[in-house]
Every structure is written in C-alpha cells, then in structure tokens.
Design goal:
Elements: E1 3-4, H1 8-27, E2 33-39, H2 43-59, E3 62-68, H3 74-85, E4 92-95, H4 105-111, H5 123-131, H6 140-151, E5 160-164, H7 171-180, E6 184-188, H8 195-199, E7 204-207, E8 225-228, E9 232-233, E10 239-240, H9 245-248, E11 254-255, H10 262-281
Parallel strand pairs: 1-11, 2-3, 2-4, 5-6, 5-7, 7-8, 8-11
Antiparallel strand pairs: 9-10
Helix pairs in contact: 1-10, 2-10, 6-7, 6-10
Bound molecules: NADPH dihydro-nicotinamide-adenine-dinucleotide phosphate and 5,10-Methenyltetrahydrofolate.
NADPH dihydro-nicotinamide-adenine-dinucleotide phosphate binds at residues 44, 141, 164-167, 169-171, 188-192, 195, 208-211, 214, 229-232, 262-263, 266.
Pfam families: THF_DHG_CYH, THF_DHG_CYH_C
InterPro entries: Aminoacid_DH-like_N_sf (IPR046346), NAD(P)-bd_dom_sf (IPR036291), THF_DH/CycHdrlase (IPR000672), THF_DH/CycHdrlase_cat_dom (IPR020630), THF_DH/CycHdrlase_NAD-bd_dom (IPR020631)
Domain Tetrahydrofolate dehydrogenase/cyclohydrolase catalytic: 5-119
C-alpha cells in the first residue's frame, strides 16, 4: 500500500524560504511584483489566478491582473504586452495559455521580455530548459513536479521515467528536467501504442494528459512513484487527476493527490520565479 505525498509541505517549505528572501529585498528598497495577463475568463485560468494571487500575498510579492477581452486583436494585445515589458515595477509576467485563436502565439512568444518570462513562453527560455541551463525559467508546473520529487527524496538517477503528455506547458519540459537528473525518459502521447505496456515499466510515472482517471492499476509498476499533474472536473463537478488514485494506491509506493498535489506547489514556484526575476533584473544574481 502506497502513501499519498501531499504538495502542502513542499509549498510551505518553498514559501518559508521566499518570505525571508522577499524581506531582504524589501530592506534594500526592492519590491518584487508579478503581472498576470489574462485574455477572456477561462475557468482553469481563473482557478490558477486565484491561487497565484493568494500565494503572492502570502509571501509579500506584489501582484496585478490585466484582464483583456476574449476577442482582443493582435495589435492591441502586443501594445499591452510591450507596456508590461517596459514597466520597471513588474519583474515577472505570466500570460495564461493557450491564447485564443485570433492571437498569434508564435509571434507573441518572442515578444515577452525573456528576463520577465517566468513561465517559459519565450523560446530563449525553452532553449535553456533543453540545454539544462538554469539561468532562465523552466515552466512552473514541471518545476513543481521536480520540487515534489526532491522534497520526498525520490532517487532519479538511472531510473525509468515515463511522461504521459507532450505539451510545452507540462509534458515536454518535465521530460527535460527529469533527463537533467539522469533519469531514462520516455515521452508518451495520444498516438503512443501500448501506453499501458510503456507506463508499467516506469519507476517514476508523470501523468499530464488531462484525461480524468485514465491511469488504472494495470499501468503501474509495483513500487512506482506516481505524479499526477492532471486537473480535471469529474461528473460530480469535483476536481480529479489523470490517475485513478484509489485503484493505483495498491501498487504505487507514492502518489500525489488531486487536489492538494502538484497544483498546490505550482503557485509557490511561480512566486520563487518572480523573486529570481527581480534579482536578475537588479543584478543581484
Ligand atoms: N497542476 C498544475 O498546476 C497544472 C495542471 N495542468 C493540467 O495538466 C493536464 C495537462 O495539461 P496540458 O499539458 O496543458 O494539456 P494539453 O491538452 O495541452 O496536452 C495534453 C497531452 O496529453 C496527451 N494525451 C491526451 N490524451 C491522451 C491519451 N489518452 N493517451 C496518451 N496521451 C494523451 C496529448 O497528446 P497529443 O500531443 O498527441 O495530442 C498531449 O500531448 C491538464 O489536466 C491540465 O489541467 C496544467 C497546467 C498546470
Ligand atoms: N502559462 C500558463 N501556465 C500554466 O500553468 C497554466 C496556464 N497558463 N493556463 C491555465 C492552466 C491551468 N492551471 C492551473 C493551475 C492550478 C490550478 C488549481 O486549481 N490550483 C489550486 C490547487 C489545486 C490542487 O490542490 O491540486 C490552488 O492553487 O489553490 C488550476 C489550474 C495552470 N495553467
């Protein structure tokens, strides 16, 4: 029988360190600040926004949300972004993704100032994740996964890690971070043949497909560590992950719960990245 490994102790430990760092910055007259750019009012964006604002307040980081209409035109969006890029009071920028159809993400991603790009939208930061260069910003959710593995002393070197999902927000970057820690990494997606066969070889299984409870006990190797990134809403309107936790508990050695797992650490990493961005911009790093 495995144990549930919760996000809260990980988030609490990150926040304790951050509070001290923020105090020190403030004593030097520096006030780290996050600006969130939201287009429209997608429920998952709003859920993340609420959590992010709460965490920033908790650790003493300033925050503002620029809420733009869902049908905003490209030129107008670019004007807003350039305003935030050149705003000396803003150190970190989070743009909720995906952006609506009418906006050209492939053009916009190059425009966000790389030093303020705390969730890895700009290809300059994506390249650093590929290279294992820690001077940039990896996206917050994959970093939260790594913080959880570190906190619970999960050995990665030489282990088989299987990632289910290949998005730029979660799957691909988390695979690169696991590779940097010397895991042997397999990335699965919707065209993977025999997903169950591949997943059941994993010592560490990271589920980020966005499909409620798709991972059943046959997908789990005995003793595996299972990290459930999915945030889905079930038939009863409750949050649930990609993993059928109850079923998988028998085989796994550790599983992160949903809610209360990766999602609860993501906003603390976001806060950590704002502080790092502030230090970089003030030549303190
Ligand atoms: N905990 C947190 O803080 C966060 C949680 N999330 C959650 O994580 C999940 C993933 O998010 P995101 O990466 O943005 O989602 P995307 O929809 O962008 O990507 C999903 C990925 O999963 C793959 N996939 C989908 N269905 C299957 C399947 N049946 N078998 C194998 N692979 C499959 C897709 O494959 P293909 O590429 O072939 O289409 C795709 O690569 C969501 O539930 C989201 O809500 C997201 C961000 C933060
Ligand atoms: N650039 C970008 N990066 C993202 O990471 C990103 C995004 N855009 N767009 C939207 C999705 C969705 N997402 C969520 C994160 C946490 C909760 C969430 O519910 N968090 C709870 C905790 C949930 C739990 O306990 O597991 C909280 O913070 O209190 C929801 C949704 C991030 N996303």
């Amino acid at each position: 029988m495995g144990t549930l490994i919760k996000g809260k102790p990980v988030a609490d430990s990150l926040k304790e360190d951050l509070k001290a760092e923020v105090e020190e910055l403030k004593s030097k007259g520096l006030y780290p600040k996050l600006t969130i750019i939201r287009v429209g009012a997608d429920p998952s964006d709003l859920a993340y926004e609420r959590g992010a604002l709460k965490t920033m307040e908790n650790v003493g980081i300033g925050a503002q949300v620029i809420a733009l209409p869902g049908n905003i035109a490209q030129e107008e969006f670019v004007r807003v972004l350039q305003g935030v890029n050149s705003d000396g009071d803003t150190h970190g920028i989070l743009i909720f993704r995906p952006l609506p159809q009418q906006l050209d993400s492939n053009a916009i991603k190059y425009l966000i100032d790389a030093e303020k790009d705390i969730d890895c939208f700009n290809p300059a930061n994506v390249a650093k994740v590929m290279e294992g260069d820690e001077t940039g910003f990896a996206p917050c959710t994959p970093t939260a996964v790594m913080e959880i593995l570190k906190h619970y002393n999960v050995e990665l070197k030489g282990k088989n890690a299987v990632v289910i999902g290949r998005s730029m927000v979660v799957g691909k970057p988390v695979a690169m971070l696991l590779l940097k820690e010397h895991a042997t990494v397999t990335i699965c997606h919707s065209r993977t043949k025999d997903l169950q066969g591949v997943a059941s070889k994993a010592d560490i299984l990271v589920a980020c497909a966005g499909k409620a409870k798709m991972i059943k006990s046959e997908y789990i190797k005995n003793g595996a560590v299972v990290i459930d990134v999915g945030i889905n809403v079930n038939e009863n309107g409750e949050l649930c992950g990609d993993v059928d936790t109850e079923e998988c508990m028998d085989r796994a050695s550790m599983i992160t719960p949903v809610p209360g797992g990766v999602g609860s650490v993501t906003t603390s990493v976001l806060a950590k990245h704002v502080v790092k961005a502030c230090k970089i911009q003030k030549d303190l790093l």
